[in-house]
Each structure stands twice: as C-alpha cells, then as structure tokens.
Amino acid sequence: MTATIDFYHSRTIRNHFWINGEEGQNKISQMTVAIAGLGGMGSGVAQTLARLGVKKFKIADNDIIEASNINRQVIATKLNIGKSKIEETKVMLLSIDPSIEIQMYPQGVDSLMVSDFLTGVDIVVDEIDVYPIEAHLDLHREANSLKLPIYSSFVIGMGIHLYKFIGSEYTIEDMYHPDCFTNDNRVSGIIKTYLRPAPQYMNQTVLENFTRELELGNVPIFGPSCLLGHSIVATRIVLDYLELSPEHTPIMPEFISLDATCLKATTHVMRAWEKLS
Questions:
Q1: 0.85 cut: is pTM over it?
Q2: For every one of its 277 residues, what pLDDT tens digit does the chain have, with 9 covering 90 and above?
Q3: Rounded distance, CA 113 to CA 183, Å?
Q4: Is 144 exposed, middle or buried (0-12, 13-18, 19+ CB in 10 A)?
C-alpha cells in the first residue's frame, strides 16, 4: 500500500502547486469520469486526466483503430491498426498507473447501457463521433436526469468549440439542427449545428469541399486541434471540479470557440433552433 501511495504522490506532485496541494490532488484521485468516445478527443482526455491523477474511469467505444487515426489519436500507431480503441485506451491508462480502475463498455453508448455507464459518475465527457446522433441523445438524457455536467470539444477547422451542458434549460436537442434527425440531410444538419459560427477562412468554396468530404465519409480533421481540445477539456474539468478558476466554464447555450489561425478565444451564444425558426 505504501509503495502505491508513494508512486501516486511522485507522479502527481508537479500538479500540486496549481491545484491547492495534496487536498486538491486527493479530490482529483476520488473523481469518477465517464468518457464516451475514444477517438482524437476522448482518448486524449482520458490520458490527460489520468496523468493529472484521476484514478477511476468508465469508458465506452465500439470502434477500431485505423491508419487515418494516427494524425491525431494518442492511442493510434502503426502497431495497433485494427485493434479495439477501448482496449488500447485501457493499455495506455494502465501504463500510466496500474492502479487506475477502468470499467469498459465495448458496445459503445446506447439506451440499454447508459444508466449503468453513468451510475456513480462525477463528470461526463461526450466525444462520440458526430454521426450517431441517437447515442449523443441517450448519453445527454441520462446525464441530465442525474444532473451531471457534460463536457465536449469538437474540432472546427484549425480550432475547437468547447461545450458544457448541465441541466435541462438548454439541451443537446436544442443545439441540433432539425436536419440532424433525418438520414437524407444528416450531413447538412451536422454542418449547420457545429459551424455556428464557422471560422472566417471557411468561405463558400471551402465549405462546399468540406461538405463533399463529409458526404463521402472522409471527415477532414486537423490533428493539432484535437490536442488543443482535449487539453482544454481536461483543464476545465479539473478547475471546475476543484472550484479553482475565477471564471467557470460557460454553460450552454454559451460556449467558447478557439481559433488557432487568428489566436482568438471568443464566447458565443447558441440559440435553440426552434427559437430561430
């Protein structure tokens, strides 16, 4: 037991100055975080939180690693192409600290598992791919019923949008464009949902080409944007949880956009679509 305590202290001690010392570190060690989706954002959030000292995770993903994931996913290398993302995330987390507790849901998120997935959880991270709308809805509805905060970051070109949901005043259903719920127009709906606002460099020609890529199933993702996004999510989770930041993370409909091309962070308000129609 002493060796385990000494190792945890040794590997996290560089955090202490910033998180109210051992008191803050102890609170982090007792957090349970549920991460849905273990791609470029989700696997990175898991790794960063583990390095910060989180010791209890619930993780869900039903996908495998592909060569196109290597540009951004911390779990992806040439050596593990074809392997399960959830298994490789487990390997990564245990390589950081073998005492980390991990509960895995290899079926991904659905209505049948979501209650068990969020039982006993303090924080929810939604990094499910943009296409399975129903999985997002299942996750958010259960989290709302439990009054759990949900953090998400999505790549928007060479930057990210940071979202935090909590409560029922503004839900993910309010965020989604109605086209998201029709198979024929789902790509259009996703673009209208997440490109609010679109970066200035995404002019009409760029947007048309971007749409064409999405329709082909080739989502253009700038790798460093994932590193930016998962670092911001992990940082905001810890600051909010420990109540250390002078400003709490905005709650939807307020959200933050960070654009690396112009070095700007801007707060926006995303009106519900039904109120815009």
A1: yes
A2: 455 568 999 999 999 999 999 999 999 999 999 999 999 999 999 999 999 999 999 999 999 999 999 999 999 999 999 999 999 999 999 999 999 999 999 999 999 999 999 999 999 999 999 999 999 999 999 999 999 999 999 999 999 999 999 999 999 999 999 999 998 899 999 999 999 999 999 999 999 999 999 998 888 999 999 999 999 999 999 999 999 998 999 999 999 999 999 999 999 999 998 665 5
A3: 24
A4: middle
CATH architecture designation of domain 31-276: 3-Layer(aba) Sandwich (3.40)
| Residue 23 Cα distances to 109, 176, 238, angstroms | 34, 40, 13
Residue 64, strand partner residues: 84
Query: What's the CA gap between 7 and 13, in Å, rounded?
Result: 10
Domain ranges in the chain?
Answer: 31-276
Interatomic CA distance for residues 86 and 41, integer angstroms: 13
β-bridge mates for residue 165, sequence order: 150
Among candidate residues 93, 66, 60, the one with its CA nearest the CA of residue 78: 66
CA–CA dist 228, 105 (Å, integer): 26
* In 153-243, alpha helices (H): 172-175, 186-194, 204-215, 223-242
CA distance 96 to 99: 9
Say which amino acid occupies 2.
Answer: T
- Residue 231 in 3-state DSSP? helix
Is residue 149 within 8 Å of residue 124, measured between CB atoms? yes
Q: In sequence order, which residues have a C-beta less than 8 Å from that of residue 13 and are 6 or more positions away?
A: none
